[in-house]
Amino acid sequence: MVFPTQVAILAATFSSQTSNGQTAYSGGLDKRLRQWDFETGQNRVLGKADDAISTVTACGDSGIVITGSWDSKLRVWDP
């Protein structure tokens, strides 16, 4: 399965929050945090950083996602 994007993805992580394990999050040079649904093949933008997102972590049962970006900021997202 391939999900094309317009710019490079620098970080991605799977979510253990979903029962089917079919959700992932990514960030990259477009500064956007995306949620990917592998069942439907769709993605949605959850938000945008001020610079490229270089790290993404999904935090277990809490459902939150943490990103680090080149703007020297750590962000907490609640998708």
Task: Kindly describe this structure.
- This protein has about 80 residues and is mainly β.
- It has one domain (about 10-75): Thrombin, subunit H (Beta Barrel), CATH 2.40.10.
- Helix content is about 0%, strand content about 55%.
- The protein has strands spanning about 10-15, 25-30, 30-35, 40-50, 55-60, 65-70, 75.
- It has a 4-stranded antiparallel sheet with strand order 1-2-3-4, with no helix packed on it. The protein has a 3-stranded antiparallel sheet with strand order 5-6-7, with no helix packed on it.
- Strand 2 (about 25-30) and strand 3 form a beta hairpin.
- The radius of gyration is 12 Å and the shape is globular.
- The chain starts with 8 loop residues before the first strand and ends with a strand.
- The mean pLDDT is about 90.
Kindly name the structural category. mainly beta
Number of helical regions: 0
The biggest sheet, with number of strands, parallel, antiparallel or mixed sense and barrel status, is: 4 strands, antiparallel
In CATH terms, what is the fold-level topology?
Thrombin, subunit H
Whole-number radius of gyration? 12 Å
Percent of residues in helices comes to under 10%
